[in-house]
Amino acid sequence: MFTVDSISIKYEQKSIINNFSFSAKQGEIVSIIGPNGSGKSTILKALSRLIPYHTGSVVLEGTDLKSMSAKQVARKMCMLSQKNQAPSDMTVIDLVSYGRYPHKKWFERLDNEDMEIVHWALEKTHLTTYKDRPIVSLSGGESQRAWIAMALAQRPKVLLLDEPTTYLDISHQHEVLELVRELNQDMGMTVVMVLHDLNQASCYSDSIVVVQGGEKAMHGTPNQVMTTDMIRKVYRMDSEIQYIPTEKKPRIHLLSTVK
After folding, report:
1. InterPro entries per the record (predicted)?
2. Would 149 disulfide with which of 45, 125, 200, 252, CB 3.0-4.6 Å?
């Protein structure tokens, strides 16, 4: 479905990401975790072609990303950044409608089919009653849902999320991640997201990629990755890992910084 093979990324001749590889299966949620400055968001930007990668390849549904036009990529993949901004007078439905433009010709108007998809995206993200409200009037969680609705309107096969819970309080973090899981399960959408919170990554991911110093340190299921040894080596923290049979995913309790 989505394969990243040995990519390397440089900024002004300085190596940021080295020989990085991972793959995501159809309908899988993959979280990328690691300390600040490890290169997590840089990887996501390269996967979405916001920045170039210098060596290696990214293959989406059997096609090399570099051989695809921007419109072809937008039809199959959508990325949402940490913080997204819309014009002050833009309404929710206006924003969501932008998701249809990768499927239209230059200057082609949205038709009835497009608007049906827009309203479907609003319904899926529980925003139908908010459709005429300005984006700036929404709460953090509501605003994030609106941007996800725009992404849904694109009908992408892959959704890339760069720290989708940043700037949100705990209840809105939960709301957004539950929505991501709901869309993944209902639509079979592949999700690759960067997360800071280890317990969120453990709870909501099918697999986790650990990045350290611009390189892949580990890749596996939450049970394989979330170990006291990994947390000590990568985050320099002592921890306890709790396994609750009813949850099936490990719960991490951070204790103290390694001296």
Report:
1. AAA+_ATPase, ABC_transporter-like_ATP-bd, ABC_transporter-like_CS, P-loop_NTPase, Siderophore_ABC-ATPase
2. 125
